[in-house]
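May I ask for a single protein's sequence together with how it folds?
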Amino acid sequence: MNPDALRPGDGLLIVDVQYDFCPGGALPVPDGDRVIPVLNNWIAVASERGIPVYASRDWHPAGHPSFREEGGDWPAHCLQDSAGAQFHSALRLPADAIVITKGTRFDHDQLSAFHDTGLAERVRKDGVRRLWIGGLAQDVCVAASALDARRHGCDVAMIPEGSMPVNPDAAAQCLDVLRAAGVSIPETEA
C-alpha cells in the first residue's frame, strides 16, 4: 500500500515502535524493525499533507500486571524511562506527533492506544474520519487499537507492510478478525 492514499480527514497511528519490541529487545517481534522504513514513508507523506500523526507507546511501571512475574502473559518490557521503552531511533516521528502513553495502570493492561488514553476524543477533535494504522505487534496492540478505533466510529485501514505480528502463526486469523470488524487491509505490494 502506498502512502499516497492519505487524504484530508485521515490520521496516521504508529503503534509501539519501541526498542523492546524490535530485535534484541525484551519482547522482540520477529523482524519488527522492518516496519520502520515503511512507516517513515507514511510519516513523511502525512507530514507533507498536514495529516495528524499519533504515536503510541507502552510505558509500564515496575510490577505491571501484564508481566509474567505478576501473573501476566509477557516478560517485563517497556519499563518507564528505560532504553527499551524509547521509540526506535530510526523512526522519524515529526516534532508535532501526538504521543499516546498507555500501559501505565496497575489494575489492568491497556493494549489499545484508545484504552483509557483520551485518543478517541483527540481523533474526533482533529476531524479524523479514517485512521491508517501500522506498528507492533500486529496481532496484539495494533489489532486492539484498530478494533477500538472502529468501535469509536473511525474508518480504519491497516498498513500491511508496516505491521508485524509477535506470533506469525496467528497472523492470518488476526487479519480475518480485523476484516470481519470492518478494518480495511489492502493487499500487500509485491
Residues 3-180 form a domain with the Rossmann fold fold (CATH 3.40.50.850). The chain has a mean pLDDT of 95. Strands lie at 10-15, 53-58, 98-102, 130-136, 155-164.
